[in-house]
Amino acid sequence: MAVKLIKQENKSGDATLATQGFGKVTDWRPPVFDPIDDMDAAYDFFAGNGFVVLGNCLDESELAHLNEFMDRSQKERPDSWGLGERRKPHHRNQGLIFSQPLLDYPELDRYTQHPRSYLLVEKILGGEDRPRFAEFNFRETPEDGGIGAMNFHHDKVSEDRLLRDPYMPCDWLCAIHYLTDTMPGTPTFCVVPKSNRFEELREAYAALGNEYAEVPLYGAAGTCILYDTATFHTRFDGDGKRGRRTWHQYYARGGWLRSSLPTTDRYVRAPSECLTDWNLFPERLAMHPDPKKRLFFSHWNTAMGEWAATGFDPEVRKSMPRGEA
């Protein structure tokens, strides 16, 4: 990777500044893969870098539907979006988030295993019947939103990633679909390639040397980014005037795996833990008549188990975080 700086580097490597990154923002554009025709190459790129960019993952009709859905649901459910009087802490400095739209909108079910990206998701997570649904949400940074800067961070991680061999399949995977064009000046997802093998960003900075880079990922509406949740990432705010819309879906890895460790002959990798302790799945999906669909929605946390035990009582749902109807 040729790193060309477009921002002043923090050459001191000051640990107190590490969460804001080290200023090695590059104009390098990673390759864009077709998730069907280029599946093997896309997988290899992901395995080596902790992310991959996929082109044309949503067609014009799907983009129109999802953008219309966002417009409609913001009017129907302003509190769920953080647009009402009951503004929630998780919306602050994050823009607008609709956390659990699947609960009340069956029209979205068809996107949960999208045919353009899902076969690659299966491959990354270890094969057919390995992916487990974890979370599905919509986000918007509105025009003139003035959203505050976000630190570099990773999402949920498993500590054994630092030791295991082979590293793949990863533990959790996120898919971000751009619902609007994303370019210099708009809020932009940014990753540090190859940082998923490090506990802290400053360790990646020291170990990767000249390969260390902070890479904004631009793309047209319909672009999909798959990233290992252990990969350090952030959101660049752009000029603070132009907006951006995204759909985020998270997957966990199900099933038990055998893998080598340098300190032992063999060990067992358990399924990934639940991504959150609050996310709920609608009854129609959790209890779906198709056993493969039920398996996909089988990664239940305690909140989900308690809600299911009540027969999916709507009052119990309302008592749970982000569960308002």
Describe this structure in words.
With 325 residues, the chain is α+β, with helices and mostly antiparallel strands. It has one domain: q2cbj1_9rhob like domain (Jelly Rolls, Sandwich). Helices cover 22% and strands 19% of the residues. It has a seven-stranded mixed beta sheet with strand order 1-2-8-5-10-4-3. A three-stranded antiparallel beta sheet has the order 7-6-9, with no helix packed on it. Helix 1 links the parallel strand 1 and strand 2. Helix 1 (39-49) packs across helix 4 (118-124). The longest helix has 17 residues, at 60-76. The chain is globular. The termini are far apart.
Describe the structure concisely.
The protein is α+β, with helices and mostly antiparallel strands and 325 residues long. It contains 9 helices and 12 strands.
Please tag this protein with its features:
single chain; 325 residues; alpha+beta; Jelly Rolls; seven-stranded mixed β-sheet; three-stranded antiparallel β-sheet; 9 helices
Write the layout of secondary structure elements.
Elements lengths: L31 E2 L5 H11 L1 E4 L5 H17 L1 H4 L14 E3 L19 H7 L6 E11 L30 E7 L9 E4 L9 H8 L6 E2 L7 E5 L4 E4 L7 E10 L3 E5 L2 E6 L13 H4 L4 H6 L5 H8 L4 H5 L7
Parallel strand pairs: 1-2
Antiparallel strand pairs: 2-8, 3-4, 4-10, 5-8, 5-10, 6-7, 6-9, 11-12
Reading off the top of the CATH hierarchy, the class is best stated as: Mainly Beta
Number of helices: 9
Classify the secondary structure makeup into a structural class: alpha+beta
* Oligomer state of the chains in this structure: single chain
Strand order of the largest sheet: 1-2-8-5-10-4-3
How many beta-strand runs? Answer: 12
What is the first-to-last residue Cα distance? Answer: 48 Å
What is the CATH topology descriptor?
Jelly Rolls
CATH homologous superfamily designation? q2cbj1_9rhob like domain
What best-fitting shape do the alpha-carbon axes yield?
globular
* Cα-based radius of gyration, to the nearest Å: 20 Å
What is the CATH architecture annotation?
Sandwich
The SSE string, one letter per element, is EHEHHEHEEEHEEEEEEHHHH
The major β-sheet equals: 7 strands, mixed
Q: How large a portion of the residues is in β-strands, by DSSP E?
A: 15-25%
Helix fraction? 10-25%
Q: Which spans have pLDDT < 50 for at least 5 consecutive residues?
A: 2-17
Mean pLDDT: 89
Count structural domains.
1
